[in-house]
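User: Show me sequence and structure for the first protein, then do the same for the second.

Assistant: Starting with the first protein.
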Amino acid sequence: MPFRLKPHKPYSFFIEHTERSGSQLFADQLHEQLASEVHRPIVLVCIGSDRSTGDSLGPLVGTFLEEKSVRNLYVYGTLTKPVHALNLVETLHEIQTRFHRPLIIAIDACLGRLSSVGYVFFSEGPLAPGAGVQKELPAVGEYNIKAVVNVSGFMEMMILQNTRLHLVYELARFITEGFAEFDARIDRLHHEEAAITRLRQSRDESKS
């Protein structure tokens, strides 16, 4: 099966980016896991660099989401302003200063087994960026999304730099579509809550 769900804690699921209606399934799982958290600011930290093809997934996702003008998600890390090893600590400090109790979701590319290439993994818990290429960086997020862009092995920095842009682009589009649908669902939740509040206020006024 192209789609797997692990219901036990910590929560996680993974899905192949070529799965039919995959972005919809991805949005379904985002909604199921995060719907109760939508009153917190949801911040996506899209980690990576536009100087390496394989590592450009995060900045591509951030750029695509900005182009879609998402209303309920705050995006850090784009092709114009990437979040990477040199500014990650500064970015996390900025987020904690700007937002009250932010729910941070870290997004990054990774290397893995051949059978996992092209899959997107969503897991509860922080991301350890740069672990695959021996970099010491702080853990990021309450949840993390990793997309497997190539096979792990010897000289992983070289592998990232020689990863096909087409796969990275398609994975980034897949993740973006899932978050765009999730953003639309948050809008609907807010509208429903506003309608319920107005109805209650109308009832209270009619009783007085």
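Switching to the second protein now.
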Amino acid sequence: MKAISGFPTKQELRDHKRREIVRCASEKFGTEGYENVPLDAIAAELGVTKAALYNYVSSKNDLLMQCYEVGMDRLIASVEQAMDTPSDTAAERLRIALETYVVTMTRKDMQYLWNDIRPLLAPGDKRSVQTSRDKIDSLFRAMLQDGIDDGSLRADLEPKLASLVILGAVNWVGIWFRASGSKKPQEIARAVVSDAMRGYLA
């Protein structure tokens, strides 16, 4: 039931607090490393007690998975938005989507997705992670197939394998990228995607 006079409901307040916890944790995991950030540090950053965090997370690993889900949703949304960009060919849409993907993954609150997540997965977490990655793979497979169909990509490409190869190449950016480097994310995205797509163009 919506509160009167525009005041947020208890659930809306709870959701807002959860988003703030995830935002704070994502930034600290991304910039300092998951292993270097205790829950106490996140609580201190937010100005709350560690006990208060346990109203929203069951453990540090649970918080990491909440951050992961938000991050993957952000990646998927960025690719879907890029796919809607007006362009003459599917190859051009693929380029835009890949560059957007790389720029998004280099955000300071995103790098934990590549550096920390795999060693910490529990069996149930693995299903959630794989579902998100399958969604991204399906988006890129569809663009690859569109490129084959419109002649802007090589006719002999196999979308499943081509998607695995090109995503394997660009995903490494999330591991080696450092914000302190000399190149901006967009510059890196253009260079990496250009090289990754070169063998795919018709």
